[in-house]
Specification:
It comes from Catenaria anguillulae PL171. With 356 residues, the protein is an alpha+beta fold. It is built from eight helices and 16 strands.
């Protein structure tokens, strides 16, 4: 392949390998964005697919894990694979969410349509494999539907003066997700016991507000679905990835210049090391992962020959935030299960074409 880039390659780096492996970050643009790791693109590289070789290159490293989020690195895959995982997380993992709201009485200020919409977005922690899919127009049964009820009335506390704030004076002034009650139907009380029972994970979600004498009485039906059906079924709040930043020093940056160089990056990216021989500070890359790739350093003329910025083409930093339906680590396992199922379906289709 013809080398068409006038890019400053780091000292000691092989030019062809650097072009193959990196996306270039320049002062006013991003170049070399297209992946060229395919057979015939490079004369000196054999890019034919090899499963065993790919297994040696592929890595998944978890950096942070909490009850609500996970941050991990996926290394050694094409951007299409990384994006497939992201899209599966958003729209292909089955969950359970409120689909129908039957309102018998709503005397509060919030209109029925807005109230129903807010209820539909409340997460439900439940194993979707315990419910069957419910087709459009199909009657609800204990096998395909969960039933919740909300029946509250706002009343005044007799022992609190009328001058007190409403939240102290009124009972059920704020109607929250904690007021939703699961109503087991038919055999559900038997096979949905203990940990299998549906739970509202975020009980402090405010559904509506009521004044004294106002009430809400309704029934909700929850069914199984996917984010591709409606956003309320999506188990993640955000599912994003970015390419791993790389900062390559082309020459030593010392003294006052090093201090200015450090200030061009977010905190923790560049550190200053004291050189006892020269008595000056030297700029060193401490943690390129923290860089936001603002390219501030490239705005300064004196650093044009000092640094090269790039992003690793096959190193993806994922951050996934769960809405509470499934734990983050479970979400990732489910996403890979869906990906394997999609690959198996594609293989069946290809095998059928070969037979014909």
């Amino acid at each position: 392949m013809t080398d068409q880039y006038q890019y400053q390659i780091p000292p000691g780096a092989n030019r062809e390998e650097f072009i193959r492996d990196n996306v270039f970050v320049e002062r006013d643009r991003v170049t070399n964005g297209a992946c060229t790791k395919f057979p015939g693109a490079w004369a000196n590289f054999d890019d034919s697919w090899d499963l065993d070789q790919w297994k040696q290159q592929y890595r998944l490293v978890i950096h942070n894990l909490s009850k609500s989020s996970i941050e991990f690195d996926m290394i050694g895959v094409h951007a299409s694979v990384a994006n497939t995982i992201r899209r599966i997380l958003l729209s292909d993992i089955p969950t359970v969410a409120f689909d129908q709201v039957y309102i018998f009485n709503n005397t509060g200020v919030m209109v029925d349509e807005v109230l129903s919409h807010r209820l539909g977005l409340i997460p439900i922690q439940f194993d979707p494999s315990l419910l069957q899919d419910r087709a459009p127009g199909e009657a609800p049964t204990d096998l395909n539907t969960l039933v919740f009820k909300l029946n509250v009335k706002c009343t005044a506390r007799p022992d609190v003066p009328a001058s007190a704030p409403k939240q102290q004076r009124l009972v059920h002034h704020h109607v929250t997700a904690a007021d939703l009650e699961w109503s087991p139907e038919a055999t559900q009380a038997e096979f949905l016991q203990g940990a299998a029972a549906p739970v509202i994970p975020h009980k402090d979600i405010v559904i509506t507000k009521l004044n004294e004498g106002e009430e809400v009485n309704l029934v909700l039906h929850a069914i199984r679905g996917k984010g591709s059906d409606h956003a309320k079924f999506s188990p993640v709040g955000t599912a994003t990835y970015r390419l791993m930043p790389e900062i390559h020093m082309l020459r030593p940056v010392v003294g006052d210049e090093a201090v200015k160089f450090q200030q061009c990056f977010p905190k923790g990216v560049i550190e200053l090391e004291y050189d006892q021989k020269t008595g000056k500070h030297v700029a060193k890359v401490a943690d390129a992962r923290k860089d936001t790739v603002s390219r501030e350093v490239l705005r300064h003329k004196e650093f044009e020959d000092a640094v090269t910025l790039s992003r690793k083409r096959d190193h993806f930093i994922f951050r996934v935030e769960s809405v509470g339906i499934l734990e983050p680590q479970v979400l990732m396992v489910e996403a890979f299960k869906v990906l394997r199922a999609k690959a198996a379906d594609l293989k069946k289709c290809l095998d059928a074409l070969n037979v014909e």
